[in-house]
Each structure stands twice: as structure tokens, then as C-alpha cells.
Amino acid sequence: MSFLIDGLQYANWSEKIFRQMREGGVDAVHVTITYHETFRETVLVIEKWNRWFEQYPDLIFQGRTADDVQVARDTGRTAIFFGSQNPSCIEDDIGLVEVMHTLGLRFMQLTYNNQSLLASGCYEDEDTGLTRMGRAVVAEMNRVGLVVDMSHSGERSTIEAIEHSTRPIAISHANPASWHAALRNKSDDLLRALGENSGFLGLSVYPHHLKGGSSCTLQSWCDMAALAVDLVGPDGVGIGTDLCQDQPDSIVEWMRVGRWTKAIDYGEGSAANAGFPAMPNWFHDNRDLAGLRAGLRAAGLDEATTDGVMGNNWHAFFGRSFGAQSAIPVKSDRAAE
């Protein structure tokens, strides 16, 4: 039986959700612990998680290696892997990459919609690609075993991350733009390049990124998954729902606005619909994850490919990605003076 892994959630965590994970048989979840938070603020979030691990040891524990997914399966719990949707947690200090990895961070996006110190976000008018610091940080992330995530990055920045990274990158929660045009969804050419470099795509169920929005059908989503498999390859596709269960609409404002503007940034919403969109009727919480299997088989995926999408592919990617790499000399962009 395949593993069941969700490659991205940002829920309003509670005992109820942890129990739903177990009711759904979810072996592992990559959770967003930070968006625009500074290093110190991110540490405070980790403190919260440490308390949850203390309070609910029969339900969840912190995952650090791919082997922890099997531990979760064997002990009837869910392994929680930390990730950041912005590089704010490392501030302007490359040394904090290793510190964050030591604290358990396993994914970090180089951008969240906007330009960062590292790369351009998908909402910028001009995508200037990886910055000098971005290239240095990618090399450091490669070294320590912190996955480069380009889910909210622009096209050029993502392509350059694929090319510059010595380890496969991830797009943990996005969909093919040829299925549904959205700023965060990725072009077919980019997804082919991702697959050619052994990268990974987690497929989202967030309505703004679905054909038909909240009315998207399970069959349409699974047909999209089959398209993604064709583009990236059968070993490079999984699930990254982007589930924001039980979050108040004020969290959307924090995600989009952070500290960078005084104005309200509606993103892919509008003034009339600035909060979280309704989820499609076939996916509300972790208890619905296993139900995707039947739809994937109906879309024409064979059993082995379906097992991969449901979780085996993420598990293998974790195994290739979370360990430290031999030190790689960092070359300066400036010739010796």
C-alpha cells in the first residue's frame, strides 16, 4: 500500500485537525510554519509546534528524514515536516540557512509572490531571475539538505533555480498553467524542464488555481494530474493541496500583505471576495485525501503511478533531498581584484 503524503498545508492547527489526519491515514504533511516572519518570530512558531508534539504524541511528531514517514506508518501517527513560504526567516544572513535546517526546516521558498533578496515572485511585472544572494543561498540550501521551493516564483527565476541548483528543486503546490491560467501555475515548458532535472511538482486543490474554481470537479482535477504526469514524469508528481483549513480570513491578509505594503493586496481574489474561497465539494480536510486515488485511476493512471502520486513519489524525493551534501565551493561573481 502506498504512503499518503500531502506536500503542503497551512491549516489553523488543532487537535481536531491532527485527529482528522489520523482518520484519513495521512502518513506525512509538509506544513508551512512561516511566511513573512523574521528568524526570531519563526523560532516562536517552532516553540508552538514543540508544545503540540508534547501534547499529542500519539497523533503527530516532527519529521526530519524520509525514514520518519515509515515510522509514522508503523506507529499510526503523522510525521510533520516544516517549511517556509518565504526566505524572511533567514533575513539577510546566509548562515541562518543551516540553523533553520538544524531546527527542522526542510523546504524554503525563494519568494512569496513578490521580489525577495533571492529571486522574483510571480506577481512582479519583471522577473529578473536569481540574485547574487539567491545563487549563494541555493548553493547553501543544496549543501545542508534544505529543498528549494519555487511555488510562488516567476518563470525566469524558477528556470534559473532549476539550472543553478545541484539538487532537484520542488514546486510544492501549483498546477499546469495550460490546464488553468493563474499567476502561480506553471507553464508546460517549465514543467518539462523540472522533470528533465528530476524536480518535483505537488498538485494544489486551492480553488484559485483550479479550472472552475470552487466548482472544479474531481474528474477535472485528476485529468489535470494525468497531464502533469505526462509533463514532469511519473516519478515527479505528488499532492500539495495548499489546504488552509479553519483559518480566519485575516490570515489571507497576512499572507498577501505581510509588512511590505499598507494597502490591501487582493492577490487572485477581489475586494468582493478577499477571504478564503470555498473548497471544492470533494476535498474539505485530510479525511478526503485517500479519496483522490479512485479519481486518479479513473483518469487513466496505472496503479504504480497512482501510488506514486498519492505519496510514494514524495517519500522518495524526501530521501534524496533532506540529507547533507558534500561542501561545494561558492564562486564569487566578481573576478579577483
Structure report:
By secondary structure, the chain is an alpha/beta fold. It has one domain: Metal-dependent hydrolases (TIM Barrel), CATH 3.20.20. It has eleven helices and nine strands. Strands 1, 2, 3, 4, 5 and 6 form a six-stranded parallel β-sheet that branches. Strands 7-8-9 form a three-stranded parallel β-sheet. Helix 4 links the parallel strand 4 and strand 5. Helix 8 crosses helix 10 and helix 10 crosses helix 11.
Proportion of residues in extended strands: 5-15%
Return the CATH architecture. Alpha-Beta Barrel
Task: Identify the CATH homologous superfamily.
Answer: Metal-dependent hydrolases
| Order of helix and strand elements from N to C terminus | EHEHEHEHEHEHEHEHEHHH
Indicate the topology.
Blueprint: E1 5-9, H1 15-23, E2 28-34, H2 39-55, E3 60-62, H3 67-75, E4 78-84, H4 95-102, E5 105-109, H5 132-144, E6 147-149, H6 155-164, E7 170-171, H7 188-196, E8 200-203, H8 218-232, E9 237-239, H9 249-257, H10 292-298, H11 303-321
Parallel strand pairs: 1-2, 2-4, 3-4, 4-5, 5-6, 7-8, 8-9
Helix pairs in contact: 8-10, 10-11
Question: What labels describe this entry?
Answer:
337 residues, alpha/beta, TIM Barrel, 6-stranded parallel beta sheet, 3-stranded parallel beta sheet, globular
